[in-house]
Specification:
The structure holds 2 protein chains of 2 kinds. Chain A is an alpha/beta fold. In chain A, 42% of the residues lie in helices and 18% in strands. Chain A has 2 domains: 118 residues, Hypothetical protein VC1899 like domain (Restriction endonuclease-like) (Rossmann fold, 3-Layer(aba) Sandwich); 72 residues, Arc Repressor Mutant, subunit A. In chain A, β4, α4 and β5 form a beta-alpha-beta unit. Chain A is elongated and about 70 Å long. The radius of gyration of chain B is 21 Å and the shape is elongated. The relative contact order of chain B is 0.13. Chain B folds into 2 domains: 126 residues, Rossmann fold; 76 residues, Arc Repressor Mutant, subunit A (Orthogonal Bundle), CATH 1.10.10.10. Chain B contains 8 helices and 8 strands, in the order βαβαβαβαββαααββα. In chain B, strands 3-2-1-4-5-6 form a 6-stranded mixed beta sheet, sandwiched between helices. Chain B is an alpha/beta fold. In chain B, α6 packs across α7. In chain B, β1, α1 and β2 form a beta-alpha-beta unit. The chains are: A alpha/beta, B alpha/beta. At the A-B interface, α4, β5, α5 and α9 of A face α4 and α8 of B.
Chain lengths: 211, 214
């Protein structure tokens, strides 16, 4: 039986040492360097990877946008998982924002998280637990398709058998929406709701989990 | 009673914006280690809390690089606060080591808490897209029973046949579930050091936290 190919995603700042421990101890058929500064072809780290014959690519992310950075990493990891690869995310290198974005991506894809800052630490996440998994398909659709804020009067006016009110109640339980006591009262997205909607809108083809 | 949680490193500024932006806070729980610079940052946060009339509790994280231990300490605090009737408004994950932030993110996902990141240059708060995912709900009762059995006997890794015998189940049933669990990356089949022709089942320490079998 052919063994699964291994993807290693490593956050990288300036120092080659940040990625060496992960590179030496974690299997990898392909390495993705996540960085917030563009790397020249002659850069020491790329030169080393070339000399070692390690297949690699550089993923440049915007440090001011943690969600966008996480999404880019998630996209790369998911692309490999879909092809049957195993993925690990090494959060040792680079600034903290990079590591947090990588951790978000790991949570979202179920990739193993590793850190070699002081000593080797590995933490398998067992399974994905991102927005994609946690948000049921029907609620994802409501979040995406409705105009926010929504008038409470409009919801009250819907028929008894309409499917929207029970979905809204479930969204409230997930802390995605809240009722704002205005005249007339409004159903608004919470900060978490806005963050999840932002994540969904930026992710192509995200459809939520099936219940 | 509204509480906020936060990981704290060397910069109080990574936590202070959340104190200011969260309405009705009466308690702050800070997770940090014993580093002198972390203590300085804590003193600054304590000073601000004192001025604002907010109670502050510090939870020591002895090893700020151990994700599992940090996550367990955080989860335990979260549950205690909930038990005491606190509403946890948000968990600020911006401070502390990378592993502390990672642990906080994990706990937010496991406990369904709102999480926020404070940008290290702009000090702007950024809500993070996390929803509650209950790992233990992703498994069947039979799978959980097998995992608990393997976890309880982890000191002596067993083959699938030994697990079946120990649990008094049919070998085919155990093999079937173990295959599924391996596919989910929850356990691993590794070479048996006693007999290289055989494979034993191994589980990670993370299982203890994820499946709440601690």
């Amino acid at each position: 039986m052919e063994s699964r190919k291994e993807l290693l995603v490593s956050t990288f700042g300036k120092d080659i040492g940040e990625i060496v421990a992960g590179m030496r101890s974690l299997p990898h058929d392909h390495l993705i360097l996540v960085t917030d500064t563009s790397l020249d072809r002659n850069d020491a780290v790329l030169s080393l990877l070339d000399r070692l014959g390690i297949r690699h690519e550089v993923l440049l992310v915007d440090p001011s946008d943690i969600t966008g950075s996480a999404l880019l990493i998630e996209g790369k990891v998911q692309e490999h998982l879909d092809k049957g690869w195993r993925a690990r995310v090494d959060i040792t290198g680079g600034r903290k924002l990079l590591s947090d974005a990588a951790m978000l991506a790991a949570l979202s894809t179920g990739a193993e998280v590793c850190c070699f800052e002081v000593e080797a630490r590995r933490f398998p996440l067992l399974t994905a637990m991102g927005v994609r998994e946690a948000l049921p398909k029907d609620l994802a659709e409501v979040l995406r398709s409705q105009v926010w804020p929504m008038s409470m009067e409009k919801v009250r006016g819907l028929g008894k058998n309409h499917t929207l009110p029970p979905k809204l109640r479930r969204m409230k339980q997930l802390d995605l929406i809240r009722l704002e006591d205005r005249d007339p009262p409004l159903i608004c997205l919470t900060e978490r709701g806005e963050a999840c909607l932002d994540w969904m809108l930026r992710t192509n083809g995200l459809s939520g989990s099936s219940e | 009673m509204v509480a906020i949680l936060g990981t704290l490193g060397f910069r109080a500024k990574s936590l202070l914006p959340t104190l200011e932006s969260t309405p009705g806070v009466d308690k702050v729980v800070v997770f940090c280690n014993d580093h002198p610079r972390a203590s300085e940052a804590l003193a600054e946060v304590q000073g601000v809390c004192g001025l604002m009339g907010i109670r502050i509790d510090r939870v020591a994280i002895p090893d700020a690089f151990d994700l599992l231990q940090a996550a367990k300490a955080m989860r335990s605090q979260v549950r205690q606060l909930k038990k005491d009737g606190h509403e946890i408004a948000v968990f600020n994950i911006a401070g502390g080591t990378k592993m502390m932030s990672a642990a906080a993110l994990l706990v937010c996902a496991m406990e369904g808490l709102n999480s926020v990141y404070v940008h290290d240059e702009t000090y702007r708060e950024i809500p993070l897209p996390l929803l509650k995912v209950d790992y233990s709900q992703l498994l069947t009762t039979a799978q959980k029973e097998i995992l608990v059995y393997i976890w309880t006997n982890r000191a002596q890794p067993m083959t699938q046949v030994e697990i079946a015998q120990g649990m008094g189940k049919h070998k085919a049933t155990i093999n079937h579930h173990i295959q599924i669990l391996e596919g989910k990356n929850i356990l691993h089949l590794v070479e048996d050091p006693r007999d290289r022709r055989k494979k034993v089942v191994r589980v990670d320490d993370a299982l203890e936290l994820m499946l709440e079998i601690d």
